[in-house]
Amino acid sequence: MVDDLYQEIIIDHSKRPRNCHAMEDANRRAEGYDPLCGDKLKLFLKMEGDVVRDLSFVGAGCAISTASASLMTESLKGKSRDEALKLLEKFHELLTTDTPAGKELGKLVVFGGVREYPARVKCATLAWHTLRSALTDSSAEPVSTE
Ligand code: ZN
Prior knowledge:
Layout: H1 2-15, E1 28-34, E2 39-48, E3 51-60, H2 63-76, H3 81-96, H4 118-136
Antiparallel strand pairs: 1-2, 2-3
The structure holds zinc ion.
């Protein structure tokens, strides 16, 4: 039952991805590519200080990578950089370990089932890896290396 609901959410987001457009005034961008599956993704971030004010993506990829990017952009608006990176960690845990999903993941728990398909884990984490490089890219502003 739960799996069906999760499936539905993933299919919905892959068919009608949210925040799927380029952003002219983004102040951070990053690109991700998964050669195994062929998923490509461009991520746009509008940071206000340390807060993710807005984010969007464009890309061509499989259903899992598109749905993951869509749900990620929905989950991160208004979050601080630290919160975003923490969520990334939790999401990665969800996909690679048996750790029970924490509440903070919200809708992202729908990707828990991907754990059983190792080849697909990269599809689901592509957007998040791209996010990490967008958040930690030092070209936009100096990043502390401590
Ligand atoms: Zn893929």
